[in-house]
Amino acid sequence: MSQVRETIFVVDDDPSVREAFGNLLESVGFDARLFSSTEEFRSAQHPDVPSCLLLDLQLPGANGLDFQQALERAGISIPIIFVTAYGDVPSASRALRAGAIEFLMKPVQKHELLTAIEQALQHDRVQRVVRAEFLALKTRFDELTAREREVLHLVTNGLTNKEIADQLGISEVTTKMHRGQVMRKMNAASIADLVRMSDKLKFRALE
After folding, report:
1. pTM above the 0.85 mark?
2. How does the average pLDDT of the chain come out, rounded?
3. What letter does residue 77 receive in the DSSP assignment?
4. C-alpha closest to that of 57 among 77, 86, 36
5. How many CA atoms lie within 13 A of 102 on its CB side?
6. 103: helix, strand or coil
7. Which residue segments constitute the domains of the chain, with CATH numbers given?
8. Cα 184 to the center of its chain, rounded Å
9. What band does 1 get if pLDDT is binned at 50, 70 and 90?
10. How far is CA 161 from CA 19, 41, 154, 165, in A?
11. Helices then strands, each counted (H, E), the chain
């Protein structure tokens, strides 16, 4: 079984630049996907593996900085490395503030480029783990009944079984049953664990 290779997408309107990047990336073991425009990139199939995007700043009919914002609005999460011959301080500042991993000037040195790519891939690896963990947590939360969600909210806000029972108009025995179900369904080892899970759910909901 062949190993899945990490993918580097290149969007640059200069064929010689695309070819040079493609040859370099393939020579060190990456899967290089080359595009002459942002439209080509958006319409292509993207493998579900750690990846990053080498993006030119000036493109026909498009601006790399605007495309960076468009990807964010579309919910497409991919680390971006700008590689350009026409960069300036304001452009670099805007790109980095918006989350770009690096802003490199052409001609870029091989070591400099590969170092930036490794930083971008490591960022993507970590984010993939975070997203997978949150999805598993959200799936467990969605399996709670409406009453169990109420109990979860009150437990993680520090209420005792008696206080929860009084607030919900149920017995302490029933409260303990719901609490046990919440702990089991959420796969929580302790109340502190349950609080951390609740905080993660609230934080992502605010994003």
Report:
1. no
2. 93
3. -
4. 86
5. 20
6. strand
7. 7-130 (3.40.50.2300), 143-206 (1.10.10.10)
8. 28
9. very low
10. 66, 55, 9, 6
11. 9, 7
